[in-house]
Amino acid sequence: MTDFINALVVLTNFILVPALTYGSQLALGALGVTLVYGVLRFSNFAHGEMMAFGTMITIFGTWGLQALGVSIAPLPTALLALPLGIAGAVILSLIFDKTVYKYHRQRKASPVIFLIVSIGLMFFIGGLVRFIIGPGDQIFFDGTRFIFSARDFKRSTGLDEGLALKMTQAVTIITAILVVAAMFWFLNKTRTGKSMRAFSDNENLALLSGINPDRVVMITWILVGALATIAGTLYGLDKSFKPFSFMQLLLPIFAAAIVGGVGNPLGAIAGGYVIAFSEIAVTFAYKKVVTYLGPDSFQPDSLVQLLGTDYKIAVSFIILVIVLIVRPTGIFSGKTL
Amino acid sequence: MTGGYGAADILKECTIGVDRGEIAVIVGPNGAGKSTAMKATFGMLPLREGHVMFDGEDITHLKPEERVVKGMGFVPQTHNVFTSMTVEENLEMGAFIREDDIADSIEQVYELFPILKEKRRQPAGELSGGQRQQVAVGRAMMTQPKVLLLDEPTAGVSPIVMDELFDRIIEIARTGVAILMVEQNAKQALEIADKGYVLVQGSNRFTDTGEALLANPDVRRSFLGG
User: Fold this and answer.
1) What's the complex ipTM?
2) Hey, which CATH number is domain B1-70+176-226, 3.40.50.80, 3.40.50.150, 3.40.50.300, 3.30.310.170?
């Protein structure tokens, strides 16, 4: 029996908690991608770099607050600096919309043009971020590191295996729940949110109903900027902030949005967790679990690992391809908010 | 009205009109410009010549959205509901330009179409064709329009549902709303029409009361199948 519980603890510690954390980060990122797709009808490749930009501003805010001696320990100071980062990302998004996207919108450019334009902006923002903060690693996490550590857990339960919960993991999961709840409340209960869904559903009919398209577009960018910053900051707190990592994050984020059904917010969230759980579960070494669950004195020689962690990114690629072949509309048939 | 999408005019000196509480029906063969004529009155077609008058005011240069504010309601032939939104949300979106309380209007639409009240929480995309048309008409009613433009409201619905829809349209007209509609089911539509326009190649061929058109041997022979 203790063996079984030990195995469970290992799985929780190395798969469940990390996947929930990573999944929450992906879900928030995918939610931003899906909003742009639903309302503005293009795949926004610049989203990953927008996450980096918002996070960078948040880091500056964090440093400023730290210099002033402000702290909300045990929580990381970055949470306090989030509004600044959000403001930065929103302003940059709105500037890009006015100077770049608006022109193509007025010419009713095809989604492919928008996609290519967004790739251009992706490189631009990426360059801007590396120019300002540098390509190196930035660790901006402060506050308490663990809510409970593996050692505490072992001592209080008497088990052989430890279960740790990092502050960043708890903060990520709780923030994600709050943000997603607020997002759904906004989309489903407020007049403005409903008008966004209406616009996403049937643009012509929305215009006939007197819904102002410029306003819908503006609100979309505000939401997307906020979501990008929150997702990026949570990711940066949990891992570390490295500008290049956000470009790599783009693939699992798009995979999440497409797997869930692009344009569907619920799908984006489900997709985020599907991708995160698969990536972690497929690359986890199950040796310990097998040892606990197998017959006595049975010990596998290998690590019992399906794929090396180097292939993590490949997992989202494979899921993406499978979904596109088997069910191209995603788990929740997407298209509209 | 004279105008078209490209160089060639689709409408040629076409005249249509409707008064308060009246039902006017545009009929004619395929490609006669029926829907185009209606779109022209709603500002979705650039006019080369002619005017659109509303309540004694020239609205020729207003955009469709602005005409909605003035008191025109338009129900397109297809894609006329928000499929992913519930029936009630569809009605709310119909009233988007209104700042006042819309609860009464929603209640009125439910009185007119009781089935919608039952299905108020269901996404409009899950409803049957006839129910969807009711949502579409209800959505347009939410702005409390003075003129309601219906583009083939009975397209693709069964004859029973069609009769039912026509009954509702008569009821709406009785409340003082002017109704202009394009109909494929010419015979039934002319039966309820106060005014009928028979368009051929973008011009008025016959204009009369619905009854008179039905009785007119020329109209019967060419458009109503004897």
Assistant:
1) 0.86
2) 3.40.50.300
SS (H, E, C) A18-33: HHHHHHHHHHHHHHHH
What would the pLDDT profile of A239-267 be if each residue is shown by its tens digit? Answer: 889 998 998 899 999 999 999 988 889 99
Mutate to test the interface with B, among A187, A200, A208 (most CBs of B within 10 A): A208
- Terminal alpha carbon distance of chain B: 31
pLDDT tens-digit profile of A128-162? 999 999 999 998 888 888 988 888 888 888 888 88
Which residue in chain B has the smallest CA separation from A335?
A: B84
Which of B68, B76, B82 is the closest to A210 by Cβ?
A: B68
Sign of CA dihedral B158, B162, B163, B167: positive
Shortest Cα distance, chain B CAs vs residue A92, angstroms: 30
| Domains parsed from chain A with CATH numbers | 2-326 (1.10.3470)
* Strand partners for B198: B27, B206
CB contact under 8 A, B82 and A201: yes
How many CB contacts within 8 angstroms connect chain A with chain B?
Answer: 59
